[in-house]
């Protein structure tokens, strides 16, 4: 089903509401006018009939009554639509005009007021029984309503003729107004349609009207800014990733080409293959890191968290760290508590996080240096610290070390084979555990990396204390 444009729908609603309003107004106005005509006429009839009643009550017999009614000037002048009968329906008096209209003698002897058609003329008739000289007379006084009803009919005609015209005019006005009000929406639609990946930096024009449309354009612009940022990050990531992959592949190719240039001894082939294998190992770990970050970006990398004793988890990572440190003559110290420290986490990811920190500490600490790993619980968190006496990080680099592909000293890192992804992965792991990671450093003196992860049960406690 195709939906009509909004402005047509608004106009249709407007038309429907207006048409209902007009009809109601017409019906109410018509009946109110008719009611007020009847009321005025009835009041007049009531006033006039009092005179007749007094006259009847003064007389003593039928003959005298007939005579009085014929003679009375006042009655003849004011009430020319008068008729008097006895309960049997015999006329005692009938004015000339009344005889002309010819309404029948009343059958009932109750006081009543009705509208009846007599010889094609609508008459308002007031009937009143009057007692005089032991007899009952039925007096009827009437008023012709034809002039009033004609005026009413004219009013109805005017309503019928002018309503469609007014409705048409009002709907046209409504259509024009809704078109005008919705024109900026059309413009926003046109502008938004012209924005694509190629010109994500362009923004919608914001009308400074302080209304919903200004808020809509500002919101859309905010969304565009976020999209642009995300898009930039992705393109930057792709560019950096391909650059990082190109270097080791080129290196391996050169090694193979050089060795194949002329016949070599078995030892030389063996050495080259060993070097290529080393490059391959580094490249596959790089690819693994890139894939992990891609999964993080697409939101598909989720952790399966279970209760974990951090003492064990950090201790296991330290086993590997110690081996790494010893090969570089770096002393390795562990300060782990005796009692377990429980958190909700995923052991593989946590191991990876601590190894990233330990790998860095070993990489950026010269021989004879010292690495200290400590664990404690404080403020509802398991706090793990990796401290080294290495080269440290310059103050201007410190805010960037968690960025992807960031390396403080590109030349040195190339030697040590780092791509600058370790800490950004580490930061994601800490955050995915609801925790944080922070770095403190003094160039030449060493660095301290601190990981805080909420203790098991702390998450629920925080939620329930907020409620
Ligand atoms: N303990 C540390 N001492 C001194 N500098 C450090 C330390 N840890 C990290 N850095 C600096 O931060 C940068 C980013 O670290 P990160 O672990 O993300 O990358 P990387 O170690 O260079 O490469 P990768 O971890 O991907 O192999 C490093 O290049 C280094 O300059
Ligand atoms: Mg690293």
Written description of the protein model:
This protein has 467 residues and is α+β, with helices and mostly antiparallel strands. The chain has a five-stranded antiparallel β-sheet with strand order 2-1-5-4-3. It has a five-stranded mixed β-sheet with strand order 7-9-10-12-11. The C terminus is likely disordered. A hairpin with a 2-residue loop joins β3 and β4. It binds adenosine-5'-triphosphate and magnesium ion. Magnesium ion binds next to α9.
| CA distance, first residue to last residue | 46 Å
Largest sheet strand order: 2-1-5-4-3
Question: How much helix, percentage-wise, in residues?
Answer: 55-70%
The largest pleated sheet is described as: 5 strands, antiparallel
- What global shape is seen? rod-shaped
Number of strands: 12
- Helix and strand run: HHHEEHEEEHHHEHEEHEEHHEEH
Average pLDDT number: 88
Low-confidence stretches are: 462-467
Q: What's the alpha carbon Rg, rounded to whole Å?
A: 52 Å
Relative strand content: 15-25%
Labels describing this entry:
12 strands; five-stranded antiparallel sheet; five-stranded mixed sheet; binds magnesium ion; 57% helix; disordered C terminus; binds adenosine-5'-triphosphate; 467 residues; alpha+beta
Write the layout of secondary structure elements.
Layout: H1 6-58, H2 62-71, H3 73-78, E1 82-85, E2 91-94, H4 96-101, E3 112-118, E4 121-132, E5 135-144, H5 146-193, H6 212-260, H7 266-298, E6 306-309, H8 310-327, E7 331-335, E8 342-345, H9 347-363, E9 370-378, E10 381-388, H10 410-416, H11 422-432, E11 436-442, E12 446-454, H12 458-466
Parallel strand pairs: 7-9
Antiparallel strand pairs: 1-2, 1-5, 3-4, 4-5, 6-8, 9-10, 10-12, 11-12
Helix pairs in contact: 1-5, 6-7, 8-9, 9-11
Bound molecules: adenosine-5'-triphosphate and magnesium ion.
Magnesium ion (MG) binds next to α9.
């Amino acid at each position: 089903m195709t939906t009509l444009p909004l402005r047509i729908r608004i106009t249709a609603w407007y038309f429907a509401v207006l048409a209902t309003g007009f009809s109601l107004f017409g019906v109410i106005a018509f009946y109110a006018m008719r009611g007020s005509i009847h009321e005025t006429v009835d009041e007049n009839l009531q006033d006039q009939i009092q005179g007749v009643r007094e006259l009847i009550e003064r007389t003593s017999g039928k003959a005298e009554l007939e005579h009085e009614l014929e003679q009375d000037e006042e009655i003849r002048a004011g009430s020319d639509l008068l008729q008097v009968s006895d309960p049997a329906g015999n006329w005692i008096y009938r004015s000339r005009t009344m005889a002309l209209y010819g309404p029948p003698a009343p059958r009932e002897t109750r006081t009543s007021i009705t509208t009846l058609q007599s010889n094609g003329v609508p008459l308002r008739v007031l009937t009143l029984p009057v007692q005089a000289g032991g007899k009952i007379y039925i007096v009827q006084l009437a008023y012709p309503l034809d002039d009033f009803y004609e005026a009413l009919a004219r009013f109805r005609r005017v309503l019928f003729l002018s309503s469609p015209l007014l409705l048409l005019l009002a709907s046209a006005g409504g259509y024009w107004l809704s078109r005008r009000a919705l024109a900026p929406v059309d413009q926003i639609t046109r502008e938004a349609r012209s924005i694509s990946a190629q010109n994500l930096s362009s923004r919608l024009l914001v009308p400074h009207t302080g209304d919903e449309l200004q808020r809509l354009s500002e919101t859309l612009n905010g969304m565009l800014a976020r999209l642009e940022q995300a898009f930039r990050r992705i393109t930057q990531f792709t560019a950096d990733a391909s650059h990082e992959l190109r270097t080791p592949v080129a290196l391996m190719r050169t090694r193979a080409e050089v060795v194949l240039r002329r016949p070599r001894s078995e030892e030389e082939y063996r050495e080259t293959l060993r070097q290529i294998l080393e490059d391959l190992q580094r490249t596959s770990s790089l690819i693994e890191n890139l894939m992990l970050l891609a999964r993080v970006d697409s939101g598909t990398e989720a952790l399966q968290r279970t209760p974990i004793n951090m003492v064990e988890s950090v201790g296991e990572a330290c086993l590997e760290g110690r081996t790494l440190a010893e090969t570089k003559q770096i002393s390795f110290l562990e300060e782990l508590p005796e009692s377990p420290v429980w958190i909700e986490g995923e052991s593989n990811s946590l191991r990876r996080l601590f190894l990233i920190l330990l790998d860095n500490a070993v990489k950026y600490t010269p021989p004879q240096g010292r690495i200290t790993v400590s664990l404690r619980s404080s403020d509802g968190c398991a706090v793990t610290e990796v401290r080294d006496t290495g080269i440290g990080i310059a103050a201007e680099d410190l805010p960037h070390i968690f960025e992807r592909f960031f390396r403080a000293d590109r030349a040195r890192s190339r030697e040590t084979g780092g791509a600058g992804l370790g800490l950004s992965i580490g930061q994601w792991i800490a955050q995915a555990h609801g925790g944080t990671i922070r770095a403190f450093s003094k160039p030449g003196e060493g660095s301290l990396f601190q990981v805080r992860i909420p203790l098991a049960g702390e998450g629920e406690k925080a939620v329930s204390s907020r409620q």
